[in-house]
C-alpha cells in the first residue's frame, strides 16, 4: 500500500507523520484489500486545520475531509470518517457475496 502525505502551508514533521502512520495502520489498512493508494493532504490557513484522505483500491475510491482548530484532531476526525466509509463498503461486499451464493444454492436445488 502506497501512502502519500502532502502539506499545504505546513511542513510535515516526524511527529505528524508518526501520528498519521499509526492512525492509518490501525483504522484504514485492515479494510483495504490488495494494492491500493492512500493520499493524505494536510493544510493550515490561519486557525483552520484541514485534513483530507483519499483511498483508492481495486475498483473503489473513498474520500473524506475534516476541519478543526487542531491538526491532530483533524487527522483523527478524517480517519474516523474514512474508516466508517470503508467499513460500510466492506459490509456491502460481504452482503452481496452472501446474496449471490444463496441465489446459486436456490437455483441448483
Question: What's the structural blueprint in terms of helices and strands?
Answer:
Elements: E1 2-8, H1 14-27, E2 36-45, E3 48-57, E4 60-68, H2 71-108
Parallel strand pairs: 1-2
Antiparallel strand pairs: 2-3, 3-4
Helix pairs in contact: 1-2
Annotation keywords:
four-stranded mixed beta sheet; 109 residues; 2 helices; elongated; alpha+beta; 33% strand; Double Stranded RNA Binding Domain
Question: Any idea of the CATH topology?
Answer: Double Stranded RNA Binding Domain
Number of helices: 2
Low-pLDDT segments, ≥5 res: none
Main sheet specs: 4 strands, mixed
The CATH architecture would be 2-Layer Sandwich
User: According to CATH, what is the class?
Assistant: Alpha Beta
How many domains in all? 1
Radius of gyration: 17 Å
The main sheet orders its strands as 1-2-3-4
Number of strands: 4
CATH superfamily: Ribosome hibernation promotion factor-like
Order of helices and strands: EHEEEH
What does this structure look like?
The protein is an alpha+beta fold. The chain has a single domain, classed as Double Stranded RNA Binding Domain (2-Layer Sandwich). Helices cover 48% and strands 33% of the residues. The chain has two helices and four strands, in the order βαβββα. The protein has a four-stranded mixed beta sheet with strand order 1-2-3-4, with helices on one face. Strand 1, helix 1 and strand 2 form a beta-alpha-beta unit. Helix 1 packs parallel to helix 2. The protein starts with a strand and ends with a helix.
